[in-house]
Amino acid sequence: MPDDDPDGDWTAPGVYRCAPGVYRIPLPLPSDGLRAVNVYAVADGAGWTLIDSGWALSEARDLLAGALDRLGAGLGDVRRFLVTHVHRDHYTQAVVLRREFGSRVLLGRAEQPGLEEINYRDHDAGRVHRERLRRAGAHRLAAQLEATPPPKADPLLWEMPDEWLDDRAVVTVGAAGTERRLQAIETPGHTRGHLVFADAAGGLLFAGDHVLPTITPSIGFEPAPPASPLADFLTSLRLLRGMPDAALLPAHGPVGRRVHERVDELLEHHGRRLDATLHAVKEGRSTGAEVAAALPWTRRERTLDELDPFNAMLATLETSAHLDVLAERGLVVTTEEDGVIHYHAG
pTM here? Predict the structure, then answer.
């Protein structure tokens, strides 16, 4: 089995050794700029524990089965899935495979409100995001998204987990004498119940989408977002910065980086975005939509108008999250007019 190559194509199908008894399996994503999600297989006695599962797609299932075959196992040898968060590219394949093979699915307890919202019989997948867009003054974008709503969630893909994991819960993986202790650590921000799994003895952090090596994760994109997802995200980053450093095993992107180094970069990035957001407010822009239109987006520094509607939504909602943090810090004050939140320099 080849060792993982940080300089290789991280999306290439295969099985890559990250550490003794730990293997990275990239699985495809449909029409997604991320292109793949990393599932990590951890040797677990006579079976395997998988961290995340991939999107419930036939191609992803076939590639996962082939990867496990190269490890001398099959889908039925997966004892459990430790899922970092409830986005479909991490959760849904675990639910499908559990139904067929009886593996267990474990998820952070704070994901329960979002999962219950998805399973609500009248759930509208885009409603909460359109409401937030309107409060940001992005009425035209909200109407555009409402005209092309996402498909209704399939309840068979969003069943509840077998076990809710609390913050600092420890999952012991492996046979006696070779145990690996994985500690679940709540890191809200990307979603309210996001978990990372820390292997302190092995010096590894299975980071999900919380710490990504080359991009910043979306903030608070979920069915039941909390009041201030960016504040949660920054607090979670500082939490990891205060823990012992570890090798970063991300859900998207190559391995090879260290957690502390990347956390410092993410904190610096959001510090710059907060400064730029405050500058836009001081120039007279007052809504989330107006400020988002004044900022560059992606590493290519595109304008908001150059983004497709979905990514324009993410950009506008992230801008509103930055404005909320500025308000919490007393750097801007808020008013409301006709349901739209306005921000003014304090």
Answer: 0.96
